[in-house]
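Section 5: illustrative case.
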């Protein structure tokens, strides 16, 4: 189905969000072109009609429950006026028709996030594809090789995707320069076919050779398998997403030349090593009987009230409704009543003279902080509900609340972890570490940063810290259990923690994750054993990750904030990451001010996100601006940019950083052909009719003022002429009233 680019101006796609399940959809392709085959309804993409009457460019591809693809900063796919792409064409291939036998209508499709802001780099797709491979029945290994010389301007690969059908084992893409093969990306096509991060070290320039190999097996087949479009055929595709300077931009390039045996004699051995895939990922796309597809989806879909993956976080500028009078905000937590708990430093501040070279606190003479350092705040309006923690702490840092509403806090000046009551009596229930004494044994800490509490076992985890590089585990009564350092999938290249700064427990996964601040990464471990699970690192973090929190929504979401790094330049902001895929789903920052030092982050059950900023001594609230989605009979639904409104606003005030969202919903089923329905969803809560009503009175008043000025000018001019001619001073009958008074004053 075709859909017009929803603006006549040049626009840039900066994000893709797929909405499909491999239970129904085998794969989706998004094309851009000037003249699609049809603009009135859907059509059979396997017919002789094709996709576009002119040349089409592949912009995005999805298969096998792939997660969203995030483009780098300053990179976008150019569409609109001067791009040669005025239409999107979404092509969907179905593997199982059973879901449609009850006249079920499919709502699979794709959300595109777009901006009008010109991007310095333009994204494109380079497709390496085999067209003549034949897989012999029973043959264990068949290689499909593709290679072409590159003869254009430099391109910078940043993501890749592999695609075959069921016989594909592994697909690899390479750049060849001066005889050396450099891997761009390698993946099993049986895994979720996302765009995975490419090797950042590889660039492609004039004179290089692009090459790809798909490895197939013919075992289990009784006849030859050819390259084709059905599920019984095979495909060999290596998609490389790249960017290049806008002045040289080429949106799509392809290579379908079979590689020579001489060239591929030198391909690295890894290209023929299959990648293990768990049985859960080997999902057959063939018909599975008459089971209702809707029931299957209800069983497999995870839902979390208040949280939707299809959203963008925006600051609530009216929160808090009154000033909280905070010092440096170091920690945030949620108590068991879902109230926000703020931990701040009052009139104390951490400066360059706070500690000596042995990490001993140098300002004990100031005494403890006299203000209430722990504030319990209503998350809805920011009103203070309770205040405690006076004359207890010197330099607060991390805080968390257990299921009994006790607070577990760290104080970097005291080098201690304390369990404190929340009843307002400021009782210290448990102390770990020796006051003002740094150390590295099991009885001492050195500037500990944060605490995480297991709600089931009561075990606590401590990140230690600024001058140690470890995570310690204690029982609920404070008995030491174990400790560990940084993890790595390659034990020979393990990088130690550099300020493990923030901890969060993932109760649904039984894991604990740490923000390794100076290494700019997030690492996760099995809570029971400390065994390393995974690492999340992204160049958009800019080299530092200050704090993290977690929500079990969807497949699990990690919320993070970054910090200033002396080695990297990146804006300070918050991130929403998919735990499973490690992909950034959203980023956010204040609209009225900028972050100065975002120090901690917490997410509530309703999806509200709070960020404590030590630099600006403030707490910011962000809520999800959900993108409206509903099933339309025609299979197309649009969250369209409000072009006229946006342009009017841009003339009245400085242009906001507007993110435009267009969602394309395609339907290529045997359902009846119904005229397309296009629905515009405004991004603001003010109805359009109110805006029109507010504009019309302004126009009328302006016209009346102009008319009045013209009448005044005419009256004054006529009086002046009559005076010059010494005529009798009589007020003009046609104007009288107000003009008569004006003339008297003028005289």
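Designed sequence:
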């Amino acid at each position: 189905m075709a859909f017009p680019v929803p603006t006549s101006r040049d626009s840039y796609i900066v994000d893709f969000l797929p909405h499909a399940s491999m239970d129904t959809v085998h794969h989706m392709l998004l094309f851009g072109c000037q003249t699609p085959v049809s603009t009135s309804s859907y059509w059979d993409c396997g017919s002789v009609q094709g996709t576009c009457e002119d040349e089409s460019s592949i912009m995005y591809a999805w298969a096998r429950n792939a997660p969203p693809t995030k483009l780098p900063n300053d990179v976008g796919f150019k569409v609109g006026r001067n791009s040669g792409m005025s239409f999107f064409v979404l092509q969907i291939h179905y593997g199982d028709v059973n879901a449609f036998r009850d006249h079920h209508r499919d709502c699979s499709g794709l959300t595109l996030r777009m901006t009008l802001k010109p991007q310095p780099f333009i994204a494109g797709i380079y497709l390496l594809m085999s067209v003549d491979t034949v897989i012999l029945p029973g043959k264990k290994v068949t290689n499909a090789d593709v290679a072409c010389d590159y003869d254009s301007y430099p391109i910078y690969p940043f993501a890749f995707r592999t695609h075959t059908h069921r016989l594909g084992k592994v697909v690899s893409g390479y750049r060849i320069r001066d005889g050396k093969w450099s891997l761009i990306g390698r993946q099993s096509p049986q895994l979720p076919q996302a765009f995975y991060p490419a090797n950042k070290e590889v660039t492609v320039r004039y004179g290089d050779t692009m090459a790809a190999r798909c490895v197939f097996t013919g075992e289990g087949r009784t006849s030859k398998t050819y390259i084709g479009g059905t599920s019984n055929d095979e495909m060999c595709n290596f998609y490389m997403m790249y960017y290049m300077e806008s002045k040289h931009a080429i949106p799509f390039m392809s290579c379908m030349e079979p590689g020579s045996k001489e060239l591929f004699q030198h391909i690295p051995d890894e290209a023929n090593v299959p990648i293990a895939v768990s049985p859960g990922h080997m999902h057959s796309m063939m018909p599975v009987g008459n089971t209702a597809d809707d029931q299957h989806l209800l069983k497999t879909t995870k839902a979390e009230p208040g949280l939707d993956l299809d959203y963008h976080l925006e600051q609530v500028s009216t929160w808090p409704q009154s000033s909280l009078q905070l010092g440096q905000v170091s920690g945030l937590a949620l108590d068991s009543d879902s109230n926000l708990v703020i931990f701040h430093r009052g009139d104390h501040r951490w400066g360059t003279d706070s500690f000596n070279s042995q990490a001993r606190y140098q300002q004990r003479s100031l005494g403890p902080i006299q203000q209430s350092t722990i504030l319990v705040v209503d998350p809805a309006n920011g009103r203070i509900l309770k205040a405690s923690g006076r004359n207890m702490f010197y330099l607060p840092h991390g805080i968390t609340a257990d299921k009994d509403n006790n607070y577990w806090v760290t104080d970097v000046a005291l080098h201690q972890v304390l369990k404190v009551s929340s009843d307002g009596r400021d009782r210290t229930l448990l102390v770990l570490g020796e006051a003002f004494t740094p150390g590295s044994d099991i009885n001492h800490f050195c500037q500990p940063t944060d605490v995480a509490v297991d709600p089931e076992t009561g075990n606590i985890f401590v990140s230690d810290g600024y001058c140690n590089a470890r995570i310690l585990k204690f029982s609920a009564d404070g008995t030491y259990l174990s400790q560990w350092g940084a993890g790595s999938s390659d034990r020979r290249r393990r990088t130690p923690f550099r300020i493990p700064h923030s901890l969060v427990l993932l109760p649904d996964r039984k894991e604990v994750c740490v923000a390794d601040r100076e290494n700019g990464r997030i690492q996760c471990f099995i809570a029971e054993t400390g065994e390393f699970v995974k690492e999340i690192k992204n160049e958009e973090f800019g080299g530092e990750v200050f704090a993290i929190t977690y929500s079990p929504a969807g497949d699990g979401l990690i919320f993070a904030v970054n910090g200033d790094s002396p080695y990297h330049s990146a804006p300070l902001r918050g991130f929403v990451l998919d735990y499973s895929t490690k992909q950034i789903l959203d980023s956010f920052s204040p609209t009225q001010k900028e972050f100065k030092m975002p120090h901690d982050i917490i997410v509530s059950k309703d999806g509200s996100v709070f960020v404590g900023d030590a630099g600006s001594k403030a707490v910011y609230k962000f809520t999800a601006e959900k993108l409206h989605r509903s099933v339309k009979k025609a299979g197309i639904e649009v969250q369209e940019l409000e072009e006229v409104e946006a342009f009017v606003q841009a003339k009245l005030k400085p242009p906001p950083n507007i993110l435009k969202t267009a969602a394309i919903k395609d339907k290529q089923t045997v359902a009846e052909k119904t005229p397309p329905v296009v629905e515009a969803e405004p991004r603001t809560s003010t109805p359009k009719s109110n805006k029109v009503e507010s504009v019309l009175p302004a126009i009328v008043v302006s016209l009346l003022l102009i008319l009045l000025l013209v009448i005044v000018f005419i009256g004054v001019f006529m009086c002046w002429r009559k005076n010059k001619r010494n005529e009798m001073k009589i007020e003009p009958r046609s104007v009288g009233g107000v003009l008569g008074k004006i003339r008297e004053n003028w005289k």
